[in-house]
Amino acid sequence: MRSGTMSRKNRLGVRVTILDCIITYQKPTLCNEKSCLGSLMAIPGRGDVPRNPEEVLSDAKDFLGQYFASIRRANTVAHEARWKTVQEEVVKTGTYQLTTTELVFGAKLAWRNASRCIGRIQWSKLQVSSNKTM
Questions:
Q1: Is the whole model's pTM more than 0.70, yes or no?
Q2: Which sign does the torsion angle of CA 6, 11, 15, 18 carry?
Q3: Which residues of 88-124 are buried (b: 16+ CB within 10 A; e: fewer)?
Q4: Other beta carbons less than 10 A from residue 133's beta carbon
Q5: CA distance linking residue 129 with residue 134, whole number of Å
Q6: Rounded to whole angstroms, how far apart are CA atoms 68 and 12?
Q7: Chain segment 54-78, per-residue pLDDT in tens
Q8: CA atoms of 7 and 18, how far apart (whole Å)
Q9: Nitric oxide synthase (NOS) domain: from which residue to which, for each copy (predicted)?
């Protein structure tokens, strides 16, 4: 049985497999046996040098996949159109702008995944106000 998969029997005795998606998206932390650096915002290797477009596109594809899956619109025309727009913007500028709903989803996702935050149980109740111009 792989990490993140649980198996149990339901009321009728049928074996049911449950997959926890959070574990499958886990990334290694900077912690070791002597110190925990999980709360650091200055991630080593993420300095003043811009990320290359391939890395931006890879992370954008992953993020958009999670976003559209969360709103039950994965692999739809809207998903494909947004992915095409993001690709064009990254090729042109090296980055892309999040839509307001993507920004809200990303903020909630970051809070949910912040393992050291004691208040993260409230992640779904987060309300985001943005002064970003679209």
A1: no
A2: negative
A3: eebeeeeebebeeebebbebbbebbeeeeeeeeeebe
A4: 5
A5: 14
A6: 34
A7: 999 999 999 999 999 999 999 999 9
A8: 6
A9: 116-123
> Structure tokens of 11?
């009321």
Residue 32's pLDDT band, with cuts at 50, 70 and 90, is confident
What are the backbone dihedrals phi and psi of residue 21, each rounded to the nearest 5 degrees, phi first?
-70, -25
Contact 64, 71 (CB under 8 A): no
Burial 60-75 (b: 16+ CB within 10 A, else e): beebbeebbeeeeeee
